[in-house]
C-alpha cells in the first residue's frame, strides 16, 4: 500500500544529510560536526545578505515571488522624521533608531508615545545592543537547589546575589532604554511593562522590581507578560525559599486585583520558580498544576519538565507516580511549541536515563514505562522538540535499557531499525549490545557487530571495546564456521594495532588482547600467525603468554603437524622460566617423532 511506502527507511541517514551523500556521517561526532556546519553555512549566508544587501536587490525571477526573495534591509526613507524612525525600528536597526530619535528630540520634533514605546520595545529586546548575529538564548542557569525539606533552608550564598542572574547582569546602568524612558513626556502602562520585561530578560531583576513599584505608584496596570517575567525573577529577589514563595503569591494576588487572566506561561513561570525553592516547591507544585486544570489550561512540555525536575532531583526515585501521570497525559497529545522552554530541556528523556542506569538516579529499570515514553515521543511531531544531539542521546539511553531488559531478538530488531538511521550508537551502546549477546548466548552475531558497526563507527581503536570483543570470542570453543569468522575479526584487530598514520598514535597491545588473538588464530590452524603474535608481539610488549595460550598453540602445532613451532614454543617457555616448560616439552616429545637434532 501507499502507507507502507511512506514509512521510515531504516537504511537511510537523517534527512538533514540527504543533499550530499558524501557527507553522510559515520558516527555521532561526525553527525554533530556536519549538522553544525550546515547551520553555520545558513548563518553565513544570512550574514552576507545582511551585510551586503546591494548585491541582492535585483530581481531576476520571472514571475517574481516576493516571499522567496531576501527582505529589504536598507532604509528607504531619508531625512529626520518620525516615519524614518518607524522604518528603522521595523528593520531592527538599534543604533540608527537611537541616533534618529536623539536628532528628533534635539530638533524639538515631538515623537508620539506609540513610536517611543516601539523604540523601547526594540531596546529592551536586544538589551541596548546591536541586533546582529548575537546569541538569542542564554545558557540555562543552574541555580536549582537540591531537594531540602526545611522551608527555612537558605540558598547557597555563593550562588546568590540579589537581582543578578547567574550569568551576570547584562543591563547597563543608564543605558539608552533608561535614558529615553526618563525623558519621555508621558508614559503609559506599556512603557513600564516593556522596561520591566527588558530588565528581567537581561538580568536586572532588582531594577525590574523597583520599576514595577513605580508602575503601581502611577496607578497603571501590568499585563500578563509582565507578571510572568516578574514571577520568573523571584529567585533573584529573595534568598529564603519561603520568602520566594511569598513574593510569588504577592504577584499572583496583584494579578487578581488588576483582573489579569493568567495563561500557560504564568503557571510555567511559577513552576520554574518553585524549582528553586527546594522542599517548599515540592510541596506546592501539584497544587499549581491543579489550578491549571481548574482554569482549563493544558500543560506544555516545559510544564512537565519543571514537574519532573522538582520531584525527581536529589530525592529517592523508587516511586514512578509522577512519571506515570505525566506519561498518561503525554500519550494522548501531540504537542506544539507554546513556551520558550518547550523542547529546550524536556527531561522525560533524562528520566529514561534514570530508568536505565542502575546506581545513577534510580533503580526502576521499567521497560514498559520506556516503551510508553517512546510511543509518546513518536506521536505526531513530538520528536521535533528534540534537536539532533538530544535525539541521539534519547535513543542511546533507550537502547541501553533494551539491552538490559529485553530478549535478544527484540534488541537486534530495534538495533537494525535504529542504527545509523535515527541514532548513532555510542561506545557504551556497543558494549551493552555485546553483553546482551553474551547473556543470550548469541556470540555468532559478534563478527557482524565488528564488521558493520564498530569499524564503520570508528570504534576500532577503543581498548575497552576491543578487550570485550576479543574476550567474548576467545572464551569458549565454537563450531568451525564461527571460529573462522572470529579469526577474521582477530586479523582486523591485529591490523588496527599495527597501522600508523600521521594523526594516529600507535595502538598499544595489552597482554590479554595478545593472548586472545593468539587463541583465535590457534583454534583455526593459523600456526604462523599465532606464532608471530606469540614471539614478536609478546616480546615487544614485555608480556608473558598464559598457560592456556601456550597449550592451545601447542595443540594447533600438533594439529597442523608443525614440530618446529612446537619446539620454538618449548624454548620460549624455558627462556621465560615458566613452570609449564617441562610439561610442554614432554607433550611435544610424545606427539611428534623428533629427530636427534630436534631433540
Automatic annotation (TrEMBL):
Localization per Swiss-Prot or TrEMBL: Mitochondrion
Residue segments, region Disordered: 134-169
Coiled-coil ranges per UniProt: none
Keywords noted in UniProt: Mitochondrion, Repeat, Ribonucleoprotein, Ribosomal protein, RNA-binding, rRNA-binding, Transit peptide, Translation regulation
Organism domain of life: Eukaryota
GO CC annotation: mitochondrion; ribonucleoprotein complex; ribosome
MF terms (GO), sorted A to Z: ribosomal small subunit binding; rRNA binding
GO biological process: mitochondrial translation; regulation of translation
PPR repeats: 263-299
PROSITE patterns, alphabetized: PPR
UniProt cross-references to InterPro entries, sorted A to Z: PPR_rpt, PTCD3, Rib_mS39_PPR, TPR-like_helical_dom_sf
Family listed: Belongs to the mitochondrion-specific ribosomal protein mS39 family.
The protein's name in its UniProt record: Small ribosomal subunit protein mS39
Organism: Rostratula benghalensis
